[in-house]
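ATPase, nucleotide binding domain-containing protein
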Amino acid sequence: MQLEDGYPKIEQQLLLLPDDQGEDKSLWGHEVTEHIRLHPEDSLRVIDNLKLVLCPEYADHDAVQHIRGVFGCPPGEAAIGNFRRLYTLILKKAWAGCPAEYWTTIATEVKITIPAMWDEDARSVMTQAAADAGFPDCRLYLEPLCVAAAEMTKLQAAGNLQYGDTMLLIDIGYFTIVRLLDAPYFDSD
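Predicted structure tokens:
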């Protein structure tokens, strides 16, 4: 994954703030950095590592506990609805990033990449959030396979990978083995 010029890391921070009508709006990436520069008092509400929230094995992780605190969820209380709302806001922001006629001119199938470690409940939250945001036709794809496909495409175009070759990718302790076929098709179903 390539970084934007001048940025030392991929910014994946989120911040929920009320808009002029008192509704939640989301800031992300560089918007969060700029907002915190002007309003440092909001820094304790910044959300990082959002993907961990929907993984049961990370329920006790500091980042997950912080996110639960931002939402005001007491320990032991289900917070899935809050996370669904947050993902819905993120997807609505993506929707708003294109002119309205774009969405009515083309048939839209949203492809969302998700961590391989998400269980069916977590996947369901993302699918429901996409529908809530106006993307009823949504397909989920596993991130490791999408990364593998993208890297294999680059290597093949450069002549460094041939059909039938096998590639191993390692992502923070997990590995993905993919073989380049004539017509690769990656799906999470």
